[in-house]
């Protein structure tokens, strides 16, 4: 496999970047040849703002068939680096979609910062808060791979740390279909901000999911502000009988709102993307 250096990031095999249109109507496409063959790898760490292997601030971006890796704490290496924030990808633009992409790290892998985003058939792996931020996003048929083996014995991980700051914010993370799998033990999420919103809908939750399900973290005493919910999930970790008492039970109207593509796309921007 041939390796190229590009902007101090390691680019493996092939990447095509295409800009379509101009000014406010322009769209940017990153097209690889497969998430195992086209990988951008970097090992920056500690600073959230400085560490992302890939950072996207533009609107109207589509990314296909490639992976973003922060190798600082990589579970696929023998490094003994202390665990700390090391972001593989940061997404801050609006109307951004990822198809068959991979995101690999341990802590803070995918910074879904802000804007409306769609992730389709992607693989996201990590151990602690590895999908976090204030994005308004649907993760459809994605593989959430928990690398709990990177944590100290007895520690459980956290998949999400969502950043909704007030009850009027439209954002939140919706996991629709797909599977949560891996090693060790994990909670589905904890709040990064006081009105965090996360829904797991019809997801295969394997026994890597801790029966408690969620943690209030800095929102202890204000759990009623949080919207942490599950619906229609199945698998060894889907039994909700031992979940925290404050897990939300959403109405059919709320479920329809959050799981419809209109949650992120009322004007049809996904169908207007070039690839």
UniProtKB/TrEMBL annotation:
Superkingdom in the source lineage: Eukaryota
Protein name: Pectinesterase 29
